[in-house]
Amino acid sequence: MRIAYVCTDPGIPTFGTKGASIHVQEMLRAFLGRGAEVVLLSPRLGDRGPADLDAVRRVPLPELPKETTESRERRLLAMNAAVRAGLDANGPFDLVYERHALFAHGAMEWAAEKGVASVLEVNAPLIAEQANHRALALPAEAAKSARRAMSAAGMVSAVSKGVATYARDYGARDVHVIANAVNPARFPATKPMQGPFTIGFLGTLKPWHDVATLIEAFACLRAGPVVDARLLIVGDGPERPVLEARLAALGLRHAARFTGALRAEEVPSVLAGMHAAVAPYAGQQPFYFSPLKLYEYMAAGLPVVASRVGHLDEVVTEGRTGLLCVPDDAGALAEALTRLAKDPALRLRLGQAARHEVLAHHTWDGVAKRVLGLACLTVRDVA
Fold first, then answer.
1. CA-CA distance, 276 to 281, in Å (whole number)?
2. Could you give the CA distance from residue 221 to residue 217 in angstroms, rounded to a whole number?
3. Residue 379 scores a pLDDT above 60
4. Which residues contact 253 (CB under 8 A, 6 or more apart)?
5. Which listed CATH number (3.40.50.2000, 3.30.930.10, 3.40.50.720, 3.20.20.80) goes with 2-181+363-374?
6. Per-residue pLDDT for 35 more than 80?
7. Predicted confidence (pLDDT) per residue in 97-124, tens digit
8. CA-CA distance, 322 to 316, in Å (whole number)?
């Protein structure tokens, strides 16, 4: 079986460290594990990447220079021709699998014209996200391109119900909700963390990750219930200077550690240095994410505290695989963390149940098997 994996998003270095990059790598790995030959088409191939992905054949697409927003968007539209040419030159394929990107429709239309099975993976309502958080110079062209991609796709794999609705609004017909997952091999069982109670966060430091509320909750803990608590923030991003300044203003900069962005292979050992992990989200924003961090926390056997937003109560079961709290409420978050800090047995029970749930039902191999099955392709079982 030959699979073309297409990712034209210029913001995703396919072999980088951000969550989207890890997602790409894990799907490539899962397809390889099921016996497929995989050809990757992307403008961001970058470094060699993990050695176990050397078998992936790499087809470079035109890189995008830094320029005006409109010029960049027109180059993305033009990239559809390069994608089609790359598929023509490197075929034949049994499946075209694409991570949906703005202004990208060539791969899905090529597959439809050739009668090749196709899957469009949609991770976010990209048009609204781009308009709200960045800049979108060609909204009409973006909408037209999205409709072309969605309507041409043989199947759409959406990471959440909210994203599935977005895909249907743009013309997708056969839509399945398939959440993010983990690679069990990355997360061996570890012993419970010792030492001062350490609260952890993993992710890109951007506004929709409400680390600001986590810092206020951390201050509440240090003020009385858990005076020696520590904060470990794994990741980097534009909000980091603001967060560090707030910690300094609270007199807590010494009690917090920022690791910066880490390679995927470094993450499990850092998670093992946490007693509890937090997935905070602001309540006023639309929630459509399938947080990779949650599944990785759970796979690492950590008790999780997540904001009660969107569908997260379907990922974290209150009192069984983690705790949920009201968003935007530092006091509520501090209360949940205090409960975990004071009850090691509860931490152990929640962490073990979370790990069992994720490893049983949310693995990348399971995602690949389901996707290939829905695309009516025969797959090899993994030993």
1. 16
2. 6
3. no
4. 244, 247
5. 3.40.50.2000
6. yes
7. 999 999 999 999 999 999 999 999 999 9
8. 6
